[in-house]
Amino acid sequence: MLIALMTPALAMHVGEPNSAALAQAGTAHDALADLEDGGVPAGVLTPITILTTDAQARDVADWVKGQPAVRAVLDPGAGGNRRDGTALVTVLPSEETSTTSWQQTLEQIHAELAAVPGVLGVAGSGAAAIDFAQDVYGGFPAMLALIALVTFLLLARAFRSWLLPLKAVLLNLASLAAAYGVMVLIWQVGGISDALWGIPATDAITMWVPVMVFAFLFGLSMDYEVFILARMRDTFDTNGSTQDAVITGIGRTGRW
After folding, report:
1. Which of 35, 109, 127, 133 has the most CB atoms in a 10 Å sphere around its CB?
2. What are the chain's domains?
3. pLDDT tens per residue, range 15-56
4. What's this model's pTM, rounded to 2 decimal places?
C-alpha cells in the first residue's frame, strides 16, 4: 500500500495553483468569468515580463510573438516601459504560467532568451515560481539524505542497534513519500478534491506545503519512534522479555 501511494509523488509539480482551484464565487471570480466569456484567456493573470535593452526590445517582442501558447505581446513603447536605455516587454500567455505545460514552455523561452544579446532578465509569477522551486527543492534530496543519516547515527547510538534505526528511517521516509503521493492524487490530479469538495485539479502543489509537511511529519514520526522504542528498551532491560517490551511500549506510548 505504501508503494502504491508513494508512486504519484514522482509526478509532483511544485508551484502556484491555477485560478480554477481558487474561490468559486465572489466578485473576483465573476470578473474572471466575464473575461473568459469575452475571449480573454486566464493567462492574463500571470503575465511574463522581459527586461531588455532599448535597442533590442522590438526584436525580442517579435521573437516572443512567434512562440507557441503566447496570446499577445505588449509594445514596450507605451507608458513607462522604457527608461535609461532599457525596456520592458510584457507577454500575455494563453494559459496561466502555473500550469505544468506552461512552466516547461517558460523554461524553454527563458533558456533561449538567455543566449539573446540585450536580454537582461525574465520575471513574472511563473518565472518566480521556477526560481523558488529550484532554490528550495534543488537540494531537497541531499537534505533528506543528510537528515536521514544524522537521524540513523543518533538512533544507533541511543538504541545500540543498527537494525532499529534503519527500520525507523526507511519507514518514516516511506510514510513521507506516501503523504506526498496522497497530496498529488487529491489536489494536483484533482479527481478526489473535485468529488469531495467541488474543487478542480490545482495542477500544482503550493510551493511551501511539501517543506511544511516534511518538517511536521518526519519530525513527529521520529519523536514517537524514539518514545516507543525507549519505553520498549526500558521494559526489556527490566525483565528481559521482548514480547513484554513490545506490548508495554505500544500500550503505554503508541496509543497516545
Report:
1. 109
2. 20-136 (3.30.70.260), 139-254 (no CATH)
3. 777 776 676 777 877 887 888 788 887 788 888 888 888 888
4. 0.72
